[in-house]
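User: I'm preparing a small set of examples for a lab meeting where we compare how different chains pack in three dimensions. I only have the primary sequence for this one, and I'd like the structure in token form so I can line it up with the others. Please keep the answer compact; I'll paste it straight into my notes.
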Amino acid sequence: MYREHWPLVCGFLLRRTRDPHLAEDLAQETFVKATRALLGWRGENPAAWLLAIARNVLIDHVRRRRIEVALPDPGELGVPPLHVASLDVRDALDRLSEQHRRLLTLVYLEGFSLVEVAAMTGRKHASIKTAVWRARNAFADIYGAPE
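Assistant: Understood. Below is the structure token output for the 147-residue chain.
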């Protein structure tokens, strides 16, 4: 399991930490926790199980290292102010089916790749790609529709 899923787990953590050394440390911790929890594993998709453990390890790491940094003014960063459009996007997401909302949230808000979503759901990459395409079309129909 380690050899087969190391690239997926390490890549997932690397994309979120942007630090190769930290990602490797967290990936090692993920496999240690997985080894300890192996007796409780119910045989579901191993990639999804490992990614869930990796996500929890990352969350624990962030909580342990809670460092407060003063944020610069959004204007200095060139970040536009919150617009009504962002509320419209959230409203459109809320009106989607649960499956479409979950797919779009995983890919666009949580940053999972299509391969990672496929591993988490136990579906093939091509079917996830098609499902995301359909979810985007459903979102576009709702978002563009006048109220």
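A couple of notes for your slides: The mean pLDDT is 83. The two ends are 50 Å apart (CA to CA).

User: Perfect, thanks.
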